[in-house]
Design goal:
Low-confidence stretches: none
Distance between the termini: 49 Å
Order of helices and strands: EEEEEEEEEEEEEEEEEEEEEEEEEEEEEE
CATH architecture of the largest domain: 3 Solenoid
Shape: globular
Radius of gyration: 19 Å
Number of helices: 0
CATH topology of the largest domain: UDP N-Acetylglucosamine Acyltransferase, domain 1
Helix content: under 10%
Number of domains: 2
Strand order of the largest sheet: 3-6-9-12-15-18-21-24-27-29-30
Number of strands: 30
Amino acid sequence: MLRESERAPGLLVGEGVELPERIELGANVVLHPDTELGEDVRLGDGCVVGRPPLLARRSTASREHAGPAVLAGGVSVGAGSLVVAGARIGAGSVVGDQAHVRERAVIGADSVVGRGVSVDNDVRVGDRVKLQTGAYITAWSVIEDDVFVAPCVTLTNDQTVGRRRRGEPLRGAVLRRASRVGGGAVLLPGVEIGEEAFVAAGAVVTRDVPPRTLVMGTPARIVREIAEEELLP
């Protein structure tokens, strides 16, 4: 059940939700039952936090209770965004306008989920990660600390494109620490992008990319090694 609250115009709050003293609330925010909010959280107009997952009848995703949505201290959620029950957003992170973070996804501290980004279920994102506008992070992907994902990047997890045999697992991509993926690149299921590797814009990555290498093209091929001066400290 949701009840109206006088803390902000149009605010609806579910059972078990406690609003911190220091919180910034836009209009028409919806907080579903048991949502956990840290101090200094900012919630934009029309965002929804803690809604139960919405699954198709034939979906193979887990139907176990995902637990509450958790927004740590200093998190900002933009207008029109949805953070599903069971998602966890780390301290100081930003979820941009119209973004979607699904159940059991974990976003680390000080990361950015850009406008219109979709973070699917069971994704793990580290600290200080930047997911830019319109990127799609498919289920079961792992993104380590300090990774940069440019606009409109697509990660995939089903080699059969919807025709998997029963019980065959999905395999998301793995992006190792400080790797970079350029705009519009496509990563095929299960590929690993090595530490400090760089995938050029528009590349289609069909196999693992070694650490500290630049790849480009369709399919992506190694062009050169990453110079020392380009590496993060």
